[in-house]
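Before we proceed, please read the two lines closing this message. Tell me what the token row says about the fold.
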Amino acid sequence: MSFIKKIRKKPEKEKLKILWISTTVMGIFLIIFWVFYLKFSLKKIDFKNLPLPTINTQDFKKAKEDFQKIEEEMKKIEELQQSLKSFSESIPPEKPTETLPENSVEISPTF
């Protein structure tokens, strides 16, 4: 009897065990193969002769200038907030008036 026919006659739980075991073994085999192939392909690359990446320093200088401008603007905003705070503290609070203006009508709720 062939191997496949023997598996077909087994109960469902045993078939699932065989499926998961074979899938795991194949996965491990593929990972090992990939690791060895990666090592082999990395040995072929000559890292000493690779060109160095170029860095555009103008972008960094521009960003630094922009951040400095933002910092200056934030300082101006803080100074403005402080001056507004001191100005608002120097104004005496208004006393609430208890009398109604001359032309107003008082409405009383009715139930």
About this structure: The chain has a mean pLDDT of 85. The two ends are 98 Å apart (CA to CA). The helical segments are 3-9, 12-44, 57-90. The CA atoms of residues 10 and 98 lie 96 Å apart.
